[in-house]
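Subject: Protein record for review, amino acid sequence with backbone structure tokens
Why sent: The fold of this protein is of interest and is recorded here as tokens.
Enclosed: The protein record, placed directly beneath this head.
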Amino acid sequence: MVPPEEIAAFVIDAASQAPSVHNTQPWWFGVHGSRVTVHADTDRRLDVADPDGREMLISCGAALFNLRLAARHLGHTAEVRLWPDPERPTLLADVDLIPDRPATADERRMFEQITRRHSHRGGFTADRPPTGLSSTLGAEARREGAVLRVVADLRAIRALAGLSEVAEQTQRLSPDHVGEIARWAPAPGNRRKDGVQAGAYPREAAHTDPHFAARDFARGQGWGRTEARHLTGDRTGTVVMVMTREDTAADWLAAGQALQRVLLRAAEDDVSAAFHTQALEFPELRAFVRERYCDGAHPQVIMRLGHAEEETGGGVRRPEAEIARDEP
């Protein structure tokens, strides 16, 4: 029998591989026997872009899904209680790991994508995702209480692309936004285990049509990886949005779990995601997207899906000693 502390270490390691806004990794985990607790680390919230903590909780939701999936990989069921202590609002979940049936082949296959999945920053190749993948991903999102909408109308795609450009340029005009990006996009050669490293984005942003603006992580310093021209795709890919019917903290956490379930399922077909959530960081633009393109649902994530020729590899991750603690 595997000791509880080894099980906890295994599921926490899987949880820590989740995507997070600017790779802030805004979480920590407590361990008490066969229980793992999930906490939001508010010191890692983007105070300028995300003052309400919406993107922070989406990130934590992705980590929670990985934790649940890792438990199943070990043949355990993860019994989750959200916000178990009203006096500790950053304690997001108690997760009891209970021995259960062995993992299914489908669960094992999805678990294997945790370390394969990576965020993409650029264009995609002309290869189209498999037929029926959009329907599959939509079903996966619904399992977590969210909605995945494929934006099929070219006019709507162009509008969302334009909004991403407006938001990106507005953020570049804000010293506070620029300073926040600088905090989480360090110069090359650093030894940090968080943030967006220079090897995670291209030196020259791909210009897709319609064009979705890329984050200015290099801030005019010429940082980023050099890509061979023949390896740089220029297709926009499939534009999708993750949405929720309501807009509470619980919905943000659900959106993160749905997002990660979708990303892992897509990774099984070598489909990557490029995120473009700048417009959702402005309340007025997010309200506009909701009214015009979401039928009243609340947009949580805007992203493009497609095949990327060049693998960028996984991002840096904080060591276990920084994110795991004994829970009294």
Q: What stands out?
A: The beta strands are 27-32, 35-40, 76-82, 91-99, 147-150, 238-244, 272-275, 298-306, 324-326. The domain at 4-116 is CATH 3.40.109.10 (NADH Oxidase).
